[in-house]
Structure formats: structure tokens, C-alpha cells
Design a protein that fits this description.
The structure holds two protein chains of two kinds.
Chain A: E1 5-8, H1 12-21, E2 24-32, E3 35-40, E4 51-56, E5 59-64, H2 81-84, E6 88-96, E7 102-106, E8 119-125, H3 127-141, H4 148-155, E9 157-162, E10 188-195, E11 198-205, H5 208-214, E12 220-221, H6 224-240, H7 250-256, H8 261-269, H9 275-279, E13 286-292, E14 298-305, E15 315-316, E16 320-321, H10 326-345, H11 355-358, H12 366-378
Helix pairs in contact in A: 7-10, 8-10
Chain B: H1 5-8, E1 19-30, E2 33-40, E3 53-57, E4 63-67, E5 78-83, H2 87-94, E6 100-107, E7 120-126, H3 131-142, E8 150-156, H4 165-173, E9 177-182, E10 192-193, H5 197-202, E11 210-215, H6 218-230, E12 238-241, E13 257-258, E14 261-262, H7 263-266, E15 269-271, H8 272-279
Parallel strand pairs in B: 7-8, 7-11, 8-9, 9-10, 11-12
Antiparallel strand pairs in B: 1-2, 1-6, 2-5, 3-4, 3-6, 12-15, 13-14
Classes of the chains: A alpha+beta, B alpha/beta.
The structure holds flavin-adenine dinucleotide, iron/sulfur cluster (SF4) (2 copies) and FE2/S2 (inorganic) cluster.
Flavin-adenine dinucleotide sits at the interface of chains B and A.
Chain lengths: ~400, ~280
Amino acid sequence: MTDDRVIAREDLDALFDALHRCGYTVVGPTVRDSTIRLAEIAGTRDLPAGVTDEQEAGRYRLAQREDAALFGFNLGPDSLKRWQLPPDRTVWRARRKPDGELTDFSTDARSGPAGMPDRIAYIGARACELHARAILERVLLGGNHPDPELRERADALIVIAVQCGEAGPTCFCASMGAGPKVTSGYDILLTELLDADHHVFIAATGSVRGEELLAEVPTRRAGSEELAAARATPARAAEQIQRKLDADWVKELLYAHLEHPEWESVAQRCLTCGNCTMVCPTCFCTSVEDVTDLTGEQVERRQQWDSCFAVDHSYMHGGGPARQSARSRYRQWMTHKLASWDDQFGTSGCVGCGRCITWCPVGIDITEEAQAIGAVTHGPARATPAKED
Amino acid sequence: MLASASDTATASAGPLVPAPFRLLAKRRETADTWTLELEPRHGTPLEFAPGQFTMISRGGCGEVPISISGDPDEPERLVQTVRAVGLATSALCEAEPGEVLSVRGPFGTAWPLEEAEGADVVIVAGGIGLPPLRGAVLRMLAQRERYGRLVLLYGGRAPDQLLFGEQIQQWREQGLEVLITVDSAGPEWIGHVGVVTRLIGRAGLDASRVLAMTCGPEVMMRFVVATLADTGVQSDRIHVSIERNMQCGIGVCGHCQLGPVLVCRDGPVFRYSEVERWMRVREL
Ligand SMILES: Cc1cc2nc3c(=O)[nH]c(=O)nc-3n(C[C@H](O)[C@H](O)[C@H](O)COP(=O)(O)OP(=O)(O)OC[C@H]3O[C@@H](n4cnc5c(N)ncnc54)[C@H](O)[C@@H]3O)c2cc1C
Ligand code: SF4
Ligand code: SF4
Ligand code: FES
């Protein structure tokens, strides 16, 4: 919107101060238990300075960087999903009258056990996360019955995005059209520039709120070299991306091969633990459970994250689960992410963040599985659609 | 921030907050199946189209999808027929008149009653699959002249498991042809014994005029559509009502997926040609 500005490293805390003054709770990446988690942070001292993450299929480890970059890592297991759709929330709480009527309905809104403060500023969002946020918002709020509490949560978020300068080995956002370059969906966008004697953030704004906030932070105009360096940053990340998925063909490919032998092969390895669905920033399955107190007078309906890998997920009286075998459950997950999501919601369910690859205890890789299903009929190089098997 | 009670009486309460319905009467249909007649506590009738369902619960005992089995021309009464098979459905069947139950909806798609005008309508129901079709039968009988033949093929496990016995007799008098079969029966049963698909052959259908609606266990529906196809009925003239696990009823919980469709949102009533490809895949 306005011209790009430069924030010096030592002035970045002024952005936190401005957010705090406006009543925002700042959530961002911070090191907890040797993992980069999203949590409330007070200022730049809580950011993972000089830390990077080493990721591979089934492997995650933090390491020390040679520099003091504040955003020199990619993604941890958490995503904005936690704030858009809390892992456990009370959808309503009510009093049960003697005749069974429920009255005095209340909800968690934003202050209940799910711990949603009034307004959240999320600092550190990458391109894939902005895309994931939009996808999840479309699923939860784009239908005919939007939930007002989730709407409020969505509207309470302000996003300070960060341009990726490096890509992790499990990233494939470029294939999914979701990165690595941030192009929209932020209030403020930071690009971290760092060399021996120079540590600054190029700041662009994407909304009026973002402009107002940035006005409270000491900045100067960006020089042309700095602007060029900022432009080169996501391009550098793009060059590092190793994994690929043919997003144009994968839907037809999977639909045409629902009985492919690879589903059996991956089921031999899959533990059906559901980790992939928990870390996925767009997976939205939930279950509800009614809880009553001992008197039976207080009734609460709780909604919790669920996973299509749980055998109960498709349970029906009489028939039992629609998807009993591990094969059918892995197939459900992958075809949902990459094929049926598009029919259901008009967008892919995958942004290529790679979390499911990193956090799978046995290192199952969605891009490899897509390859394997494309490979038998078409050679390993490229997944193209095939006729029905 | 707490939403106040007065807020929640309005639409702003959100789609997951139920509305109170008083149980006026209950009628025992079989040993384990009851028809509940409810009335909205706050007046507004639940306008619905036959085939749609509600998410209903008895305070704190779990919420389940149940089709509306009432007459669409009498929306001031919410009528639902429930078979007690587990926690939530047993709690519903045990509710006593005067009690207040919690209801969300109606949700989902309806039987194609307009498209069926002029056709010979064949309804194939198995067991608890008849109540979701009851409203369609009532509407078509009320507008009898708009349809060709109206045929109900109904199968149950045993004679004492059959629903709506007396009403079916009345429907016959109003112009519904009815064939009933049971899986097994004692010597006192003089009707058909065997699977419901056998009745399709006995109905003497003119395939080119048929529009079929079927609801029952999924295996039954598979055989029904296969048999109808054998007699020459096109798959776009067959409509099925599909059951899946449902936690929300409004397309946001992910439990009711069948390939590209969300059964609660895009169904439960589907044109068979739209879901045929997916229903053919085991464990999809
Ligand atoms: C669109 C639609 C219309 C329907 N219409 C009717 C109707 O008109 N009449 C009627 O009688 N029925 C109808 N049903 C079926 C009815 O919804 C089920 O019988 C009901 O959900 C069973 O609930 P329950 O709690 O009584 O049974 P249970 O079997 O106790 O519970 C089923 C629920 O509990 C969970 N659950 C229970 N046991 C297990 C387990 N062992 N493992 C995992 N999960 C478990 C599942 O999540 C499931 O949601 C309809 C279903 C659908 C989808
Ligand atoms: S499916 Fe995997 S790569 Fe795709 S968005 Fe989910 S976690 Fe990320
Ligand atoms: S793919 Fe991996 S993370 Fe997902 S359920 Fe299977 S073992 Fe768990
Ligand atoms: S029942 Fe929740 S999505 Fe259909």
C-alpha cells in the first residue's frame, strides 16, 4: 500500500509495543521443548533468535544458526488453525430445566478454557500459512451456516507475515501455488535482511490497520539495494524447494486410482496415528460430545479436533465404520486433501507446508505417495492422469 | 464474553445451538421404534421438505441425525420416527410426553417430488428406511392426480418389525400400491418372504415411466439400484438417501464424506447417477 519502510532490528520491539497498546495479544514462534511452537510472546526476546529447524520426513530438530536471524527457520507443528478452530471448545453450555428444556445458553466466546484473548496478532506467518488460513476460513465460514463465534475469532486476527528466505526440505508450497512468496493476506509483511553489519526488516503494509500500526514504529524509507534484496529473498527460497507435486493432475490421478495397490503398500507403514491431520493447517474434522455435571443440570456440548484416521470417525450403527481398513483411511485423507476438497469447497485442501511429512512418525510423504500412484502407469518422473483402474 | 439467554432465542445464536421442542405424544411402532410428535416451544413451525432431517437430542445424551417422518403440509408438528439402537436414540425413545427435546435443522436435500410428477413412482424402503419416505408418500397421496402409479415396496426383517401397519392400509385406499416382504416369518405370515429386491420384479413396472426413491441399509440400496438397472431404469431416475456418521449436519465437521460429497450438505437424498461412482468403491 504505502512505500516499503525499513525497521531496524532494535526497533522491532516497537511493533510489539504498538500491538500491545492496541489491545492485541501477540502470538508467534518461540522455542518450547526443543520445538518451535506458537505461543503468546512478549517481544523479540521470545523469538527463536539464531535458531533454525532441520526437517526431513519423520524428522525434526532445532539447530544453531551462524547468524542472529529472528525468523531463520520454517515451520513448527502449530498453525493458525489453533486460533481459527480451537482443539477443544464448548460450542454451548446450558442449564437443563426439569422438563428437559435447555436454557441460559452461553458459549466460550473468546475467554473460555480454549483461551482466546480478545484480539490476536500473529507474527511470523509464512505464505503457506496465509493460504491455509484462507482455506480453513472458507470451509468453516463459507457455507450456509457460518458459526458466529468462529467468525469473531477470524475477525479478531491481525497478521504480520514474514517472507521466507529459505525453504525447508519438506516444503512444496510452490507446487500448490501457496508460496514461498507472500503476495496477499497480511496486514504487515516483513522481509528480514541480515548480513555482517546490517540487520533490518523491510516492512510493507497490506491493510489500513497495518498502516496505522506501522506508523507507530520508527522506520525509514527503504533504499533501492534493500528493496532488491527483499525481492530476492523469496526467490532464494523458491530455488531451494526440493519436493514437488503435480497439482494440476493429482485430483484426476487419485480419483482414477482409488483401487491402486499403493494404498495397500502405504497402509503397511501407516500407524493411523493421525499426527498428519493434527499438524495440518487445514484439516478441520471435529466431533462433539455432550457433558453433564453430576446433577444433570448443567449440560455442555464440547467440540474437539478429530481425525479421519480414527476408526470411529466413520462409525455408523449397524454397519460399523464405513472405513475400517488402514488402507481406506489413508486413502480418505490423501484424496480429501488433494482431490475431493476441491469438489467440496472449490479449493485444494493442501498448501504444501510439509508438516504432515515432517511429523509423520514413520516418514510417510504425501508427495511420494502421489508419485507412487502416478508412477506405475507413467514412470516415476511425473504424475499424469490415467484411465480408471 | 457470554451470550445471554435472550440472544440465543434468536437466529444469532448460531447454527450449533438447538431450539426447544416439546414432546406432545409418542407412539410405539415396534419393540424398539417410536414415533415422536413434537411442537416448537417458541411457536415458529419447522417448515421442511420430505427427505430432510434434523439433528435432535435429549439434553446431554448426544445429538443424532433423524429424518422428518411427518406431513410436510402440517409443519406445526415435527414428527420423527426413531429406532433405539444406541445411547442417543434410546434416550430419545425413552423421553416422555411433556419433556422438551433439542432440535437443529431441518438440513439436507429432499426427495424430487416435482420431478416425479407424471412418472410412475416406485418407493423401495428397508426397515427404518421407510420413515424418511413417509412425508413423500403423504405429499404424493395428497396430490394423487399429479402422479402415475404410486408403488411402495417395503421390506422388514420380520412381521413384527414392520412400521406404520394401519397407515399403510389407509395409503392403499388412497391409491398407493403396496407390496411387503420380510426376511423371515412364522407360518402365520401369509405375505412375501425374501429380500425386497424380489418385489421389484413382481411390481410389473414399465421402466421407461419409473422414477424410483429408495432408503434403507446401504447393502439393500446397492441391490435395489442393480435390480432396477436390470429392469431398464436409468440411474438418473433413481434417488437414494444415504446414511453416514454426522456430527454437525451443516458441512463443517468432515464426518459424512463420501468422496466429493458431504452427505449432510449435498444429500442425504442424491440422484443415484451423481453418487454411483463413489458408492461403488468399497470403504470410500
Ligand atoms: C440423514 C440421516 C437420517 C436418519 N434418519 C433416521 C430415522 O429417521 N430414524 C432412525 O431411527 N434413524 C435414522 N438415522 C440413523 C441414526 O442417526 C442413527 O441410528 C443414530 O445416529 C445412532 O445413534 P446412537 O447414539 O443411538 O447410536 P450409537 O451407535 O450408540 O452411536 C452412534 C454415534 O456414537 C458414536 N459411537 C457409538 N458407538 C461407537 C463405537 N463403538 N465406536 C465408535 N463410535 C461410536 C458414533 O460417533 C456415532 O455418531 C438417520 C441417519 C442419517 C445420517
Ligand atoms: S496435507 Fe500436509 S503439506 Fe498439505 S497442508 Fe496439510 S500438512 Fe501441509
Ligand atoms: S500418514 Fe503418518 S502421521 Fe498420518 S496417520 Fe499415518 S503414520 Fe500417522
Ligand atoms: S455432518 Fe458434519 S460435515 Fe456433514
